[in-house]
Specification:
Blueprint (H helix, E strand, L loop, with lengths): L4 E9 L2 H10 L4 E2 L7 E5 L5 E6 L7 E8 L3 H10 L8 E2 L3 E7 L5 E7 L10
């Protein structure tokens, strides 16, 4: 697998509403047109995204995820599983196909593939 860059960062917090408002009002981030119910999404000018979600664990605090850009998330997922890494099933939104995994540092990461709505339009 080849990691092409960072494309996504997210935070999961028990203060989702406050963090979403901070991201909009203080940081000046622009909400994505297609936000999901599981996270408030923000589009950044370079094409990356930032997400604010509810806390994943029952314990207080925050957790974060970083998304690594790959060309083929399904092939990258197979490669991770061949190395004994547990990877969740692929998910998809209007822009990306992605999978989550926990690395040896105990933190959550993602592999993300950009979906192209028009095969003739190159992705920046």
């Amino acid at each position: 697998m080849e990691i092409r860059g960072l494309i996504f960062a997210g935070t999961a917090t028990d203060r989702r509403v406050a963090m979403t408002e901070f991201s909009e009002r203080v940081l000046g981030l622009r909400r994505a047109a297609h936000a999901g119910e599981f996270a408030d999404m923000f589009d950044l000018p370079d094409g990356t995204r930032f997400a604010v979600a509810d806390e994943r664990d029952e314990q207080p605090g925050t957790s974060r995820t970083i998304g690594f850009l790959v060309d083929d998330v399904l092939a990258a997922r197979r490669e991770l599983t061949e190395h004994g890494v547990q990877v969740d099933e692929p998910s998809e939104n209007e822009r990306h196909r992605y999978v989550h995994f926990v690395a040896p540092d105990g933190e959550l990461y993602e592999l993300v593939e950009e979906l192209r709505s028009d095969a003739s339009t190159p992705t920046p």
